[in-house]
């Protein structure tokens, strides 16, 4: 296990070489799984995430059906090999919590009332974990939903802002997430200008909170453009093949 760095920011550069307002490297690819209705693969720094969507389809058991709308069911899981020390297979308290907040973050974007009594299943599998796996998973899941043709008000994009060495930073790396002073993941619909998730761990002053939220939203807007590009590339490629 690495030791806590003495300083996280030196001469304006963070420990991984980024500027305070800079995202980690980002790669998004849509339509990576043939057997799923929609899918996406995402790399954010050292995070590697795959998301798959199945549905809308009849929900079973039937007592879980809603007569007025579809039920969105998100499942977040980390592969045993995704972390340095092998993770025990199966759901954990943390994975259940992230599954719940991911569902709540994505629901406002989906026209669920178009599919009464149906279910939409979203699986988010962390293949390699660094920091910010929940934000990476939500971002990938949103692309997978769009790839699956699920009607949406807007894409949902998720990033985090935090505080290290008293400085507000975007998209925390592993060391910043582990030893930083605060972390605030959000999910956001850029076209609607609507937050769908806001969590916080640590302490901000009221002024720092405003700065962190503004920076996280700006980060979301950058990632949003990459989401759109991934979807455009997928369907441009499909059009050429046809």
From TrEMBL:
Provide the protein name.
Answer: Exosome complex component Rrp41
Recorded GO molecular functions are: 3'-5'-RNA exonuclease activity; RNA binding
Protein purpose: Catalytic component of the exosome, which is a complex involved in RNA degradation. Has 3'->5' exoribonuclease activity. Can also synthesize heteromeric RNA-tails. Catalytic component of the exosome, which is a complex involved in RNA degradation. Has 3'->5' exoribonuclease activity. Can also synthesize heteropolymeric RNA-tails.
Enumerate the Gene Ontology biological process terms: gene expression; nuclear-transcribed mRNA catabolic process; rRNA catabolic process
Recorded hits in NCBIfam families, A to Z, give: ECX1
Please tell me where this protein is predominantly located: cytoplasm
Which UniProt key words apply to this protein?
Cytoplasm, Exonuclease, Exosome, Hydrolase, Nuclease
- Originating gene: rrp41
Q: Which organism is it from?
A: candidate division MSBL1 archaeon SCGC-AAA261F19
Q: Does the keyword Cytoplasm belong to this entry?
A: yes
How the protein assembles, per its UniProt entry? Component of the archaeal exosome complex. Forms a hexameric ring-like arrangement composed of 3 Rrp41-Rrp42 heterodimers. The hexameric ring associates with a trimer of Rrp4 and/or Csl4 subunits.
